[in-house]
Write a structure and sequence with these properties.
Layout lengths: L10 H4 L4 H6 L23 E2 L32 E10 L4 E11 L6 E7 L11 H9 L16 E9 L2 E2 L2 E3 L12 E10 L4 E11 L8 E3 L2 E4 L5 E2 L1 E3 L10 E3 L14 E10 L3 E4 L2 E9 L2 E11 L4 E4 L6 E5 L7 E6 L8 H18 L7 E5 L11 E3 L2 E3 L11 H22 L12 H14 L3 E2 L4 H5 L6 E2 H7 L22 H18 L1 H15 L6 H12 L2 H11 L8 E10 L5 E5 L2 E5 L1 H18 L12 E9 L6 E7 L4 E6 L5 E8 L3 E6 L15 E3 L5 H23 L1
Parallel strand pairs: 1-14, 2-15, 21-22, 22-24
Antiparallel strand pairs: 2-3, 3-9, 4-8, 4-12, 5-6, 5-9, 7-8, 10-11, 11-19, 13-14, 15-18, 16-19, 17-18, 20-21, 23-24, 25-26, 27-30, 28-29, 30-33, 31-32, 31-34, 34-35
Helix pairs in contact: 4-5, 5-6, 6-9, 8-9, 9-10, 9-12, 10-11, 11-12
Length: 737
């Protein structure tokens, strides 16, 4: 999803608002509720829950995890674990969805299962006592736009009945993360009949979902309804060898303010009944013609090999924009953009960005495997629904005007590309977004920023009135992302979970993207792409951990040492990077007084004699060189450059330039805290530059990477201008969300 101030991308942040506001502006730490629930009684089968503070895993998963690599020779794209058949009806006046669901789940483990855990995500919005709102109060941060839920605007999901083979299934609310007893986002169901190893069971569930006033990825505004995280969804039973598990365990977490989701792959067969004058968009493929009855229309959508289902319905939508896309290895994809009339100007740009994303991600990661892609632009005043991803379906942003090379154009592209990218890093590479958001938000932020960079797009933060004055700064995408990343005093490892973070979720976007950008600079663009293609090959339609990404990159790039060093230093941990040129000096090497051997005898060169000799040599040289080149003279120059390290060691390049146009280049790649380099050359030095290619965006301060013998204000002037542009960008973004 997009960052919690999400425009939905740090791209759109640093550049348009996600990561920016994420790290720089969002100091949103999470504290546990003051009145945690009592520990739930043990499950009937003794299968444990994942730890409340579970986070990154450093041990790679077993080769056969999640059924092993999906080679394309299997009958299905994924090892389908769950099947949902849902019939749902929307009441647009009450903003309610009533549903009947058949949930068929397969026990992949080697032990009988008597208790299952089910997410009721919509209960995050039932009242101020949920984990979501408790953390929001304690952090002092709203979700994105800071919309407050008022009386009559809460949302919830109620279980009306749960049956297994006709028998009633008892259930109870549990708080796996020790959140408040008033959090009802997870239930445990104790089954009348155990599910044998390898067997399946079906739960018949009647439910009713009250949508909230649009907040945090779901809800209604006027006739617009974004229906997401709306049905009972079974948690994931992880097996030994999967993401560090040593025994079967249920991975179920409460709905935290800054966490997202994790679910098994399966198939969805969903029939949606809405008033006939409503436009509908949904995950998957529409089956047959809509059926009309009593002023209501039922549409059936089917999609396999996904792990979620979302949809929208709106009476005000304009006629959707529909096109197709084809690419190597992918089916023909029907792409539609659903938009409100006030944002008609955004439809074509969103379509182009979506199709360009299909081409880029398919080429650089792997083929897009589905036949549909639906882009939804929420209406005015429903921005909280924008910038969120679901399988084959995502929401973007809209503007009434989209001029070329404007902040609006950049944000629209950035958010569209970012949300599409989640279809890979959240969708196809279905990581655990609760425990390892680095794999989704971080890797997606890096890859969509990469796409924007390769497109040649820059951030244009100046509003129209500044452009009329001739002020129209622009900066590169990764520069914007870097600005939003905490560098001087990073507190949280990117690999940590989504809710135990001193500096909020923002650095997961920005710092993670910069870590990977710097790794690409170190090992090369082509090597990085090989590594991510290997990651896609190994882990598509499975559930990788961070250690699995590390291994795929190490093998795919052929740069294991560099990959392992970066992951140890900047993913599983976090370290400050702060290298600088401390001193530069260039002085003539003059004759010196003292004794020396001459003709077999020890003779003395007095200071007076040496001074006369130096004067004579200078006079002779001046006569011979009436117009000497800058920085030259009768004596050579000894140049010394001292570099200092104030953080973690990274491989640095130092370039020293001399007055005659020549240069010296040396590599500094040791753990030492400082080093002095020395050269004796005919000309004096002009400047010393660390990291001339700007490979290390994690570096706290790029202004101290260089020094000149003479004062030079050009660098400070340039960076001051860029900073001013960034500040304007942030202010502009805040005004738009």
């Amino acid at each position: 999803m997009e960052i919690r101030f999400r425009s939905r991308s740090v791209l759109a942040a640093g550049a348009a608002g996600v990561a920016l506001l994420s790290a720089g502006l969002a100091l949103a730490w999470t504290v546990q509720a003051s009145a945690p629930a009592a520990a739930p009684p043990p499950s009937l089968d003794g299968i444990a829950l994942a730890a409340p503070d579970a986070a990154f895993v450093t041990t790679p998963s077993a080769p056969d995890a999640w059924g092993g690599i999906r080679t394309g020779e299997q009958a299905t794209l994924s090892d389908r674990v769950v099947q949902y058949r849902i019939e749902a009806t929307l009441d647009p006046v009450k903003h309610q969805v009533t549903g009947q669901q058949q949930l068929t789940w397969r026990n992949r483990s080697a032990v009988p299962v008597r208790s299952v855990y089910v997410h009721l995500y919509m209960n995050a919005f039932e009242g101020a006592g949920s984990t979501f709102f408790t953390e929001q109060r304690q952090s002092g941060q709203g979700f994105r736009t800071g919309v407050e839920t008022k009386d009559g605007e809460w949302g919830h999901i109620a279980l009306r009945s749960v049956r297994q083979a006709g028998a009633s299934v008892p259930w109870r609310f549990v708080q796996p993360d020790n959140g408040p007893a008033t959090d009802h986002t997870v239930v445990r169901m104790d089954l009348p009949q155990a599910v044998a190893p390898g067997a399946s069971t079906t739960l018949d569930i009647g439910f009713a979902t009250q949508l909230p006033r649009v907040i945090a990825r779901t809800g209604y505004f006027g006739s617009f309804h974004l229906v997401a995280q709306w049905f009972p969804k079974i948690a994931v039973l992880e097996l030994p060898g999967e993401r560090g598990a040593t025994a079967p365990r249920w991975n179920a977490h409460e709905f935290h303010q800054n966490s997202e989701f994790y679910a098994d792959f399966g198939s969805f067969d969903v029939s949606l009944t809405v008033p006939k004058d409503y436009t509908v968009g949904a995950t998957g493929e529409l089956q047959g013609a809509p059926v009309e009855k009593n002023g209501m229309v039922t549409r059936r959508y089917v999609q396999a090999d996904v792990h979620d289902f979302a949809w929208m319905a709106d009476r005000r939508s304009a006629k959707p924009l529909v096109e197709t896309w084809t690419g190597p290895g992918s089916p023909t994809v029907t792409v539609q953009v659903i938009y409100p009339p006030e944002y008609a100007a955004s439809a074509e740009p969103a379509m182009k960005a979506a199709k360009d994303s299909l081409a880029y991600f398919s080429r650089t990661l792997g083929p897009y495997p589905y036949k549909t892609l639906t882009v939804v632009i929420p209406p005015h005043n429903a921005e909280e629904a924008g910038g969120m991803e679901y399988p084959t379906f995502f929401t973007a942003m809209g503007y009434d005007k989209v001029e070329p090379k404007s902040l609006q154009a950049f944000e629209l592209d950035a958010v569209t590309i970012h949300e599409f990218g989640h279809g890979y890093f959240y969708g196809i590479l279905a990581s655990n977004e609760f425990e390892e958001p680095f794999l989704d938000e971080g890797m997606n932020e890096y890859w969509d920023s990469r796409m924007m960079r390769d497109r040649g797009q820059q951030v244009y933060p100046a509003p129209a009135f500044m452009k009329r004055l001739g002020i129209d700064p622009a900066f590169d995408v990764f520069d914007g992302v870097r600005t939003g990343a905490p560098r001087d005093n990073p507190a949280d490892a990117p690999g940590e979970n989504a809710w135990h973070r001193l500096q909020g979720i923002g650095p997961v976007y920005s710092r993670s993207a910069i870590v990977m950008r710097d790794l690409e600079e170190r090992i090369g663009r082509e090597a990085m792409e090989r590594g991510f293609k290997e990651y896609y090959r190994r882990w598509k339609f499975r559930h990788p951990g961070i250690a699995d990404l590390r291994e795929a990159l190490a093998d795919g790039t052929g740069q294991r040492a560099a990959v392992e060093r970066v992951f140890a230093q900047q993913v599983f941990s976090t370290a400050r990077v702060d290298d600088r040129v401390a001193e530069i000096g260039s002085e003539e090497v003059l004759p010196l007084p003292g004794t020396r051997m001459a003709g077999g005898k020890q003779v003395e060169d007095t200071q007076e004699a040496v001074d006369k000799r130096i004067e004579r040599i200078r006079e002779e040289w001046d006569k011979a060189h009436p117009k000497p080149a800058a920085g030259t003279g009768p004596f050579p120059y000894r140049t010394t450059v001292t570099v200092r390290r104030g953080g973690a060691p990274v491989p640095q390049t130092l370039v020293v330039k001399f007055a005659d146009g020549s240069s010296e280049t040396v590599l500094w790649d040791t753990d030492e805290r400082w080093r002095t380099f020395t050269w004796v050359r005919p000309t004096k030095a002009v400047s010393a530059q660390l990291d001339p290619r700007r490979s290390h965006y994690l570096d706290v301060n790029k202004l101290d990477d260089s020094r000149t013998l003479k004062a030079d204000r050009s660098a400070s002037t340039r960076w001051t201008g860029e900073f001013a542009a960034f500040v304007q960008l942030v202010l502009s973004f805040i005004a738009t969300v």
